[in-house]
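Suppose you are handed a protein chain with no further information: no name, no annotation, nothing but its sequence. What can you learn? This example shows the usual starting point.
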Amino acid sequence: MTQLFRSLIFVPGNNPRFLEKAKKLQADIVCFDLEDSVPDNEKDNARNLIKSALKSRKSYESSIFVRTNSPLSGKIPADLKQIVQKGIDGIVIPKVNNTKELKKIEKTISSLEKTRKLKPIQLIPSIESTEGVVNTYNIASSSKRVCAVVFGVFDLLNDIGVEYTKDSEGAKYSRSKIPVDAHAAGVAAIDGIWQDLKDTKGLEKDCILGKSLGYTGKSIIHPDHIAIAHKLFHPNKSEIEWAEKVCKTYLESTKKGKGATTVEGKMIDEVHFKQAKAILELVK
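A reasonable first move is to predict its three-dimensional structure. Written in structure tokens, the prediction is:
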């Protein structure tokens, strides 16, 4: 892991006011959304607004990811053409069913990175179907770009024909399996959304359950939920150890006049150093 994953907040990509307010959000990851929160007739507008927001990357305090449309939508090529540019830290791919889908997307991203002379962009596949749940380990371990997976509870329940309830009993097996597979692949697992914005007690309980299952954070849709997620998903031992390794290795590398280096086979640079330093400062 190269950063904190306590909170991933989705921000509608077609809302200029929300994109502006996101500059001050304290979430670990701010994710501009092109998928569920954006109607079809607003997709182009959202792409343009997000492209513009990425040009102001320095104004945002969090890591910046963008959620594309799903592989089956046919809209990902248009999404990537606009969002793969300087300023983006990573991409959330919704409704990933198998590694074939992810590899195809990665090939397009690699081509755009090469043409635009960009650093490698991280990927977070979202597991939202029965096929995706079965293939979670393969998906999570399919690429060095994958830094985490996220659990999409609502589409999964729809896929198995179960109605959503706050206890999400219908998704119990899937919710338990995803973090096991993610950790086996060496990546983080981000839990699903808590839908009731006013029920903060329920959110706290859900975060505690998620952490007990092995999740490292929560995907959220309201800024008021950030502080709760951060309180309950405090950095664990493995995240602290990783941060210590990153800081030590990067500082040794810079003393030798080098920038980017590797830790356990993964590339790290100044961005990762800052994230690791933030984890250690938070622990202190």
